[in-house]
């Protein structure tokens, strides 16, 4: 049987979620045994070791800690941390569950290959606690989406016989983002009301959060760590930004004038 790391991750998180809802007193042995049972991998030493490795990765990532209470502070007892609880709250699409995250993202539309490659790496660096790298990867993926929208805008403006604003082709992504906003703002009266409300309410916030995290990580002016909460938020926001850009791009291609 070919068991992938994502299979182990998915099954173990399901086990922990079920056990935590049933009984706050988690124990390492029962989690490992049930994970192995569901994967049907008893007596396969390599897979059993992979299961144990992922279990210890949960400790390293701060999602689980040893002990149940002060009377039972040692192994085999363990408990979910605040980080672990947040992961399970959004389990179906949390970055800690790449399969679920990708399934959610794929349902929103077709992600371009450049953005996909950056998000794939973002999920890997996130699971390895390399949060600065994650912030840079999510920022790059977001910029790829913005440039895709920019290209659609430029093509549509040219098709109308007009000259696109020079700032749409500026090498500075912030200037491009601002120009996209201005071009769409000029034509907001022609936009469907729900799309207009969503764009003008969320575009600035989405772009600001992701770009701020990327700039903090990517500009070598500080040795301060990027908080997990910050990149976690960026990864959760990214699908919503993707959906917004996907919907705006469709409107540009079909109805922009």
Explain what this protein looks like in three dimensions.
The structure is a single chain. The chain has 257 residues and is mainly alpha-helical. It has two domains: 5-89, Arc Repressor Mutant, subunit A, CATH 1.10.10; 100-255, Nucleotidyltransferases  domain 2 (Four Helix Bundle (Hemerythrin (Met), subunit A)), CATH 1.20.120. The chain has helices at residues 5-22, 28-39, 45-60, 82-89, 98-106, 113-127, 131-159, 173-186, 193-218, 228-255; strands at residues 26-27, 64-66, 77-80. Strands 1-3-2 form a three-stranded antiparallel beta sheet. Helix 1 crosses helix 2 and helix 2 (28-39) crosses helix 3 (45-60). The radius of gyration is 22 Å and the shape is elongated.
Helix content: 55-70%
Estimated structural class: mainly alpha
User: If you average the pLDDT, what whole number results?
Assistant: 86
The domain count comes to 2
How would you describe the shape? elongated
Q: Give the helix tally.
A: 10
Report the CATH architecture of the largest domain: Up-down Bundle
The topology string of helices and strands comes to HEHHEEHHHHHHH
* Largest sheet properties: 3 strands, antiparallel
Low-confidence stretches: none
Report the C-alpha radius of gyration, rounded.
22 Å
What fold name stands as the CATH topology of the largest domain?
Four Helix Bundle (Hemerythrin (Met), subunit A)
Number of strands: 3
Give the full name of the CATH homologous superfamily of the largest domain: Nucleotidyltransferases  domain 2
At the first level of CATH, the class of the largest domain is Mainly Alpha
Strand order of the largest sheet: 1-3-2
Query: What is the beta-strand fraction?
Result: under 5%
Q: How far from one another are the termini? A: 56 Å
């Amino acid at each position: 049987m070919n068991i992938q790391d994502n299979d182990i991750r998915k099954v173990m998180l399901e086990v922990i979620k079920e056990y935590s809802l049933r009984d706050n007193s988690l124990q390492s042995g029962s989690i490992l045994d049930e994970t192995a049972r569901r994967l049907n991998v008893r007596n396969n030493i390599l897979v059993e070791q992979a299961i144990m490795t992922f279990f210890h990765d949960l400790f390293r990532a701060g999602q689980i800690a040893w002990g149940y209470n002060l009377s039972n502070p040692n192994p085999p007892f363990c408990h979910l941390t605040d980080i672990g609880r947040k992961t399970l709250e959004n389990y179906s699409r949390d970055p800690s569950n790449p399969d679920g995250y990708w399934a959610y993202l794929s349902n929103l539309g077709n992600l371009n290959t450049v953005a996909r490659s950056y998000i794939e790496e973002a999920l890997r660096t996130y699971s390895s606690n390399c949060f600065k790298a994650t912030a840079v990867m999510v920022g790059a993926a977001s910029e790829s989406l913005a440039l895709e929208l920019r290209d659609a805008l430029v093509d549509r403006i040219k098709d109308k016989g007009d000259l696109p604003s020079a700032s749409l082709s500026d090498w500075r992504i912030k200037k491009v983002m601002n120009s996209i906003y201005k071009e769409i703002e000029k034509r907001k009266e022609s936009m469907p009301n729900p799309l207009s409300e969503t764009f003008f309410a969320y575009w600035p916030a989405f772009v600001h959060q992701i770009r701020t995290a990327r700039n903090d990580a990517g500009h070598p002016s500080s040795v301060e760590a990027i908080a997990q909460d910050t990149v976690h938020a960026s990864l959760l926001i990214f699908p919503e930004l993707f959906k917004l850009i996907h919907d705006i791009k469709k409107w540009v291609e079909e109805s922009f004038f």
